[in-house]
Amino acid sequence: MVAERSSLDLKAVAVWAGAGLLAAILDLDPAVRTVLLAPLVLFLPGYALCAGLFTRDAIEPGERLVYSVAASAALAVLGGILVQTATGLDRGVWAVLLAAITLSLTLVAYRRRDEAPRPERGPLARPLHLGFGLLALAIALGIAAWSVSIASSGARDEQGRASFTSLWILPAGSGAVTVGVSSHQSGDASYRLRVSDGVGTLRELELTLAPGETREQVVRTPASAGSGPVEAELLREGRVYRRTYLNREGEA
Amino acid sequence: MSATAAVTPPVQSERDDEAGLGLGAWPLLAILAGCGLVLVALGNNAAREGDGSLQLLFWGGLVLAYGPIAFRLFGRGAGRGERLGLAVTLGLTLFLVKVLRSPVEITRFDEFGWWRATDEVIRSGNSFHENPLNVATGGFPGLATLTAAIAQLTGLSIFHSALAALGTARLVLVLALFLFLERLTGSSRAAGIGIAIYACNPSFLYFDVQFGYESLALMSAGALLLASQRWAGMRRFDLAPPAAGLAVVVLLLSLGLTVTHHMTTLATLAFLALWTTLSLVFLREGWIDGSRKGPLLPAAAMAIFAAVWFALVAAGVTIEELGGVFSSSFHSLVDLVTGSSSSKKLFSGAGEKEPLAARALALVSIMPLLILVPVGIWGMWRRRVSAPLKWTLAAVAVLYPVTLGLRLTAASSETSQRASEFVFIGVAFLAAWLSPRLPALGWSPAKRIGAQAAATALAVLSFVGGFLIGELQATRQPGPFLVGAEDRSISPQGVAAAEFAAGQLPAESRLLADRNNATLLGSYGEADPIFGRYDGISLPRILFSPRFDRADERAIHGQSIAYVVVDRRLSRELPLIGYYVESDERGAFNRRQPVGPGVLEKFKRVGALSRIYSNGAIVIYDATALLR
């Protein structure tokens, strides 16, 4: 009973590592996967290592946290470098590797802790007003999150203010080109797309693109058209807005 | 005295340090720091809209995030738990200032190289790749491998995975330094003061938390320092489990650090070597006894791991990267001394006109720290401090004025910037060691608070000045597009062109572009930007020569450049950092006027080139016809 209680942390680590392994296999919500799997990289392997190396009172909690995180990062990096000599790194490999490291180190720690005498502990002193303090810290965290949200919306607005549309032309095998248009405008935008060669117009069409929309057209270029460039023009309100061309000698 | 002074008793009665778990003013000050962050965010949003009149919000926010916490850390009456909490809060708050600078995407030059390295790990399952944006990523794959692990496991983007890794690294670095300084000085107040001063280092706000290997390596180095300190203070023949455990931790962290970053590895190795040497000298002189383990194991572990890793994997990339930085620093300093070149304006970027007030503030801000170093060392000498670790840190602090001297030339400024996070550990120690010794015990409460306020004011000055020194004026806050201005040159048009390249052009296409578009195309665009020369022809010449001629054609053919990327905005203004593509391009740092629009349009008249992409600002020409 006593031994069980003293190893609650190790059991939690083992369960977390196992849950992480499952989460890597199952198609879970990204937020859940992040909560379960980020500690498998940044904390759990190092914590299990430190639990095996140091008895509870050998180092203080802050120092244990430092070693746990730094050792986790080192184990993940060194483990990854070693494993990739045999197989490529992907989600499954990472999950198995880090869970295996964590579980084996947890097992070692569990055995060593069983052998070690359990230290005498008095009840933890609970400082007055701790609850209010924690509530205030949560509020601080909320304010910090709010500041990130303010900054993120400002950055997205800034990106949105850059209104432009891209036009491209690329060879599409023998006797054809691909013409693409991509809108980065903040609202619907209408254009006329004209593809021509040295002889005449090959294709002309009206386009209305929603924000973020991309359209591509494959246009055949007849062999009789000569060796002049194939030109794509995007017209807005009757004026050339973008112009690209493909010289025939550059055609694949 | 012991070899490390690991268990130095408190320097004076500080009953507040024994207060244990009490949170004290921590929550309230955390709320204030959060409010500071809101002001910074609002100031940044105003700057994004080109409104410079609200800069006060940004600077006020920074002071609010730093000042109140520093005030509390300098004062007496706070418990250990509160100080620890405040130190961590300060570290994380200042990490968030960088997040607020670029909250939705990476923007810094170095970050794109690491984005590419991480993307390569994710796509190939292998950590060792050539990287045209940063040669060192293939020799030091620690950060890319760790970030890839988080991204692959959680499904987060590389950007968000990096934030998770770097935020954690910042937390652990601050915690490790606090515990290290506390153990060294025997005072949690001293440790808190040390953290407040460490945060004044010019790299702390942005550079040390950017998506770059140094940001992660600093955590490993901090943890290794803490473990080495504990190891060195243990009884020499103690082989009990804690000692064996520490040995394992020291070895693991040394190895982890070695595969993460060359400069931090070398700096840590130099530090441990000096500490070991001083320990041996002090031992021989009889100033310390030989009852402690000393730092030999960490020093030897770092030396062996670094030697093996550098010899087998990373020697080439280390020499290529650091060799270039140190050699240009050296030559620029020699030129300065011999009068071949003049000094640059202190604390100002190449193409910037920093206001006189800001430069004066930056200059004044270094004074308290410049005074602190000799005063601290004199105090240690007077008190006959005989702990080798303390003298090692003092020696590191002596480098602070030296690094300031390096800021006299543009080339050596980078070395100075990169050294600051290491040098400030020594400066922070001297502040931590000295502060509790100031004669305050007999003062009245009002006088004490006055002294505390004065110390805080000096710290705020050093903090703000450090930021002014460490960051270009243009990149301190976001804002409208600027030419050749690092973060400020990353625009949606550039990202769109890179996305086009990734989606439509063959992967790893060799292309020529200006510095900022090269970073975008080399990362998001999955292309290989080419720099340097071919057969004596400088590649930027292709972009900036008045006419496209035979030499340009030869260079394109010789370097197999498939695409030429032209950013028409380059003709709007001079590049802020002094050059468009590379620092040794013709006209770098000396241009009087920007490249003409006609020069950038010359490719239209080249029959062998196809203009395959245009978004108004950026045009991509297909040059494959010239490769046949």
Explain this structure to me?
The complex is a heterodimer of chains A (252) and B (628). Chain A has helices spanning 2-6, 8-25, 30-42, 44-53, 61-83, 91-115, 130-161; strands spanning 165-171, 176-183, 189-196, 201-209, 214-220, 230-236, 239-246. By secondary structure, chain A is an alpha+beta fold. In chain A, β3 and β4 (201-209) form a beta hairpin. With 628 residues, chain B is mainly alpha-helical. Chain B contains 20 helices and seven strands. In chain B, strands 2-1-5-7-6 form a five-stranded mixed β-sheet, covered by helices on one side. A two-stranded antiparallel ribbon of chain B has the order 3-4. In chain B, α2 (55-74) packs across α15 (445-470). β1 (165-171) of chain A pairs antiparallel with β6 (610-614) of chain B, so a sheet runs across the interface.
The shape of chain A is elongated
Average pLDDT number of chain B = 90
Number of strands of chain B: 7
Number of helices of chain B: 20
Radius of gyration of chain A: 31 Å
Major sheet description of chain A: 4 strands, antiparallel
Which outline of chain B best applies? Answer: globular
N-to-C SSE string of chain A, H for helix and E for strand: HHHHHHHEEEEEEE
The low-confidence runs of chain B, each spanning 5 or more residues with pLDDT under 50, are: 1-19
Number of helices of chain A: 7
Kindly name the structural category of chain A: alpha+beta
Distance between the termini of chain B: 75 Å
Radius of gyration of chain B: 26 Å
Strand arrangement in the largest pleated sheet of chain B: 2-1-5-7-6
Strand content of chain A: 15-25%
Strand content of chain B: under 5%
Can you give the helix content of chain A as a percent range? 40-55%
Average of the residue pLDDT scores of chain A = 89
